[in-house]
């Protein structure tokens, strides 16, 4: 069919009057609810959109992201992949001086756990003096929830992408409340971590040797259909994982199996860390494609919120981390909240978490809303993403794939920022978790990334503005 | 007691047409003596200064509300009510798409882009990338962007109409500023929207209808763009079974591009209208097309006024909303001072003069009694629903002698005959042929 063979159905963008005059002629239209792009991005947008590499680069990036097949292959000690004088942390790079309360608390806890300091004071002094190198998890193929601190004696999930061959790591989840990742380092925190080092880690390592790789892509697809969004709700996925593991745990560690299974069963978030490693290995598959404007990481260190873009290598683009808006535990309130922290936004980056909110009506009140808000949140994310995930689907939206593959040009054009679900850490080191909710990423991180993309491209038009030329 | 109120809403964007309608509605409220709701572009800031308001600190992304009224707060409340009414189009529970890319998840045949020119590239790019033809109504798109889009369109085998494409008609559907046309055998390829409107309105009057009107944008025949859209539009009409004859309305072209167009292998006969000294004007080109189709050439309707040639008349002042009509009139009249109010200098942040009469009403009030004002009034979908309502009043009050070129068809929603009568009663001479109007204006000197 050619354009001229029948009255056209028209998408209209701009003046409402022109849409109305089509409707007056009984022409079906789809009006775009257009707004000008974010301030200061108009020029860069045009340059980036006209980059001849971009279309193919983004298609490749998003295809790699959505075709990744994450498998849980091993549980191993961090010391096998990390040198002994390095601690990993969540988010973009940060030094001790700028670290927030919960980040400091978690680092102090790790110093105590590793036996590198006698007490809190000594730990602080050593950290301030640079006794260990602080590096972002993301730079070591890893992710960590909240403070995301990984020290050499901790155990990690190892997730392999069977499609593209990448590997990603994430620590084991300690549970909720007073835990290291929320910045707590009291005796009960360290005791639990030691038990994880001595009992949980070895038992799970032996278990996975028996089970062989566990297909996380299919497990997560099922969990989404059972009401998880895999960031703030992991109950279904944890249950599914437990079913996969339980017999092998009993065989591999008969003496500690009951403890191990009880611990996993008692923590609805146990699966989160596996989901994060799965998300990391998938987004890593989309990295380093020249010309691509796809976001491959969003991460916070409690001070800065950073994003990385496929076409811009390992560069971070940051803005101040915001304070989440949500519900608080007990007597805690917004005044106790630390700015946003953690690598768990890797779930949103890969089309889960806040992007899959519509799959998890059970937790919408927890993040302060109604079911309609959850549906709206997911629907709005289709506006800033390049694809719908072929495996991760939302039953309530007619099994539509989750919105996946954030494009910085679409963020700039729509002014819509990624919807991020998150836990809320206490501001003061040692407090632990104080609540959970939603957080708004800083817009400047995305505009800075867009401007950097434009900077790398020579002017695709070689002209200065309108009306530079007239017919001869 | 009249009070003034100037508000700035940071970052609240609304399109200029919506805002103009709201301004007009507020002005009609009792007790309101001045009202302007507009984006704070430099032009609009200068307009509110001219209206005697203090101009606030604001930029083009901010909404400006300026009121002089007995109860300005009530007018603000009404403005908010209207903004929310216009804001929510008839969209069901699904959220409306925010970009063209998103809208194209549903099936469509064409994208019509009319966002401000500096932002038009992204939307047009979405359309072409998705393999859809696009009509870019917006002006102010750079020639580099235009060439880029048209080169991409070559690889996708789709037509880019525009930028600055004011009108198109496809299989009976009028897009942009479009007259209601009887279906017929003539296809039009036009570098100019109002030029196409003139030709198709005359064809319609002659009882010979139109198959399609494809706009290509005023720069398509430049060396930079290379006539990509013109050549494609010609091929499309050549392949179209409904089209028996093509009228090509072009602007002066780069020689190698003109040659390429000349040599395009077409089975369908082509009549060319090229506005230049000594070339056939749009009316003559229409007459040639009629003769080529062996159809009678009628008298073009005109409603002359009582005023004739007087010693008082010293000069012609052209107040045009259509750039090509203004150019044609200037060529035919051979003298005078012509202003194109459709130029993007006048339309940045405000609606096109075919919708918003304000600037031309002002210009009429400034004209002197020694001047013959020659102006176009364009009817059809998208244009002012009743141009006589504001302009005829200004025509009646101006001391100048007024000649109107009324571009419209009997099918247009504004009622051609009623509009003609209103302008004639206001004292103007009214012609449906712009060239005849210009000749008449010259004869008055």
TrEMBL record, chain A:
InterPro entries in the record: AllG-like (IPR009499), OXTCase_su_AllG_h-dom (IPR024033)
Protein name in the entry: DUF1116 domain-containing protein
Source organism (scientific name): Nonomuraea jiangxiensis
Higher taxonomy: Bacteria, Bacillati, Actinomycetota, Actinomycetes, Streptosporangiales
UniProtKB/TrEMBL annotation, chain B:
SUPFAM superfamilies per record: NAD(P)-binding Rossmann-fold domains, Succinyl-CoA synthetase domains
GO cellular component, one term: succinate-CoA ligase complex (ADP-forming)
InterPro entries, per the entry: NAD(P)-bd_dom_sf, SUCC_ACL_C, Succinyl-CoA_synth-like
Lineage top rank: taxon: Bacteria
MF (Gene Ontology): succinate-CoA ligase (ADP-forming) activity; succinate-CoA ligase (GDP-forming) activity
Pfam families: Ligase_CoA
ATP-citrate synthase/succinyl-CoA ligase C-terminal domain: residues covered: 319-442
GO biological process: tricarboxylic acid cycle
Identification of the protein by name: FdrA protein
